[in-house]
Amino acid sequence: MSDDGTNDGQRFDRLPATDAERTVEGRATRAEVVDYFADRFGISPETFDDYTFWEKGAGKIWIYSGDAPTPIEIEAIGMTCLRTRQEHWKPTTDFVQRFGREASDCVIELDHEQAQRFATGEDQDLAWDGDWGYLIAAHDVAGELEPIGIGLYVHGELRSMVPKGRQRDLES
């Protein structure tokens, strides 16, 4: 971890393990990230034992399977997984598609038509009796619940957060 106390948008800095190790104000800690995924989505903290978390820029968190020196000035490491420097933390589509199968909470199961609409970026009115906020949208594929992406559920509406470049037709 860089100990100069600044956030440099041109380099990756490993997230500090805990608050006590934080040197950059506002930077999330590994413990906070792992706790967020456990508290919000029920993803076991052990899921991330072999991963490191990194920040590049303000609040763009990356997950990497392995280790690397810190700080490191490269274009990318692993995949983006979370945006933290906003009111509500937002997981990325890539993260949900990779780790969403591990989730037991805040997963909204969509039928085929709803999944199709979600994957093409369409917002839709849906009943949901869980927490409002970011949800993992998933649908059944051959008997397995398959994550599609992240959605924002507010006021009875599921808003698709699937980026335009990733929207697709689920028809085979």
From TrEMBL:
Keywords: Methyltransferase, Transferase. Residues 10-24 have a biased composition (Basic and acidic residues). It comes from the Archaea. It comes from Natrinema hispanicum. GO terms for biological process: methylation. The keyword Nucleus does not apply. This is RNA-binding PUA-like domain of methyltransferase RsmF. One of its GO terms (molecular function) is methyltransferase activity. Residues 1-24 are annotated as: Disordered. The keyword rRNA-binding does not apply. Residues 1-78 form the DUF7122 domain.
